[in-house]
Amino acid sequence: MQVYATTHRGLERVTAEEIRELGGKLQKYGNGRVYFKCDERLISSLNYHMRTCERIIVLLKSVKVTGLEDIYKEIKDIDFSFIKPNESFAVRSKRVGVHDFNSMDIARVAGDAIIESYQSSAKKRLKVNLDSPDNIIRVELIHDLLLVGVDTTGDKGLHRRGYRVYQHPAPLNPTIAAALIRISDWRPEKILVDPMCGSGTILVEAALVGSDIPPGRVREGGELPFNPKLKILGVEKFGKHVKGCRETLSKLGIDFIKVIQGDAEHLDQHVKEADTIVTNPPYGIRIGRKSKIKKLYHNFLKTAKDILTENGSITLLTPHEKILKSTATKLDYEWSETPIVYGNLPVKIFKLTI
């Protein structure tokens, strides 16, 4: 089967590697999508195990179009006989680029085309159910590229793990957190520290990775077999976030991760050593003036050098590329960088080494 996974733009290589490890035969990737081939059995496994992507979609058609008429024609030519006569469907549309129509127009035209196609072949009118359809047809227009597919994930994307108890004002997407951990090359036998842990998303994702627990098992609910030998530590400046983080960990039955209230600018006062630091520092909206951001980055990276073990590293997400590079240069760090788009914000993942 021809399949594609959706992910954050810039993380295609990370997601592609994860798909390859799970058995998918990679073809190409770009624009937040990874294209590959696999059999039907692997699709359910990918939805259960994938950590860094949002959706798994069986591709029905990929073609260049010029407008709504083309969209209607191309979708009408697709064979939708896989939908059973007693089943319902809904179209979920997305549009990227400049067009003289919107996503709702695409969904309307696509829905009409699907109904007409099915009517012609099966002599029956398909039922539309926008709230809880049996089949979700994804119709995405990326500039002039039309992608039509069957969404095997459902309306709740794979980033919806279901473990979050406390609502942080700026929570980190779990797929981004999982990608940060992959990029960091952390291994379960090593010490991982998040010095600005917020509501604990990186801590939880690390615990899942280190215990080899797939996200699908978390979504199922029930007891999770965590590895109690993992050495994971969280530090957070604000007491309400510390409390919220602990509540999430407690809900999951994680009692081996210690979360302490402390300041990342004085990390050496709270943490003796770390092999891997993975974190999502606060952005300007949360912290205020750029002078505060410069101070935070300088003091954090300076004290982090004192606790990092040999061959240790720091992996972080930031929109403040210039500040990060300037600070890292002054403190003699080397780095690699991965530009991504998080929401509509261009940011970069940096991996720093001494």
Automatic annotation (TrEMBL):
Does the keyword Transferase belong to this entry? yes
Domain of life of the organism encoding this protein: Archaea
| Pfam families xrefs | RlmL_1st (PF22020), THUMP (PF02926), UPF0020 (PF01170)
Give the keywords, sorted.
Answer: Methyltransferase, RNA-binding, Transferase
Q: Which residues form the THUMP domain?
A: 40-152
Q: Which SMART domains match?
A: THUMP
What name is this protein filed under? Answer: tRNA (Guanine-N2)-dimethyltransferase
Q: Organism source for this protein? A: Methanothermobacter tenebrarum
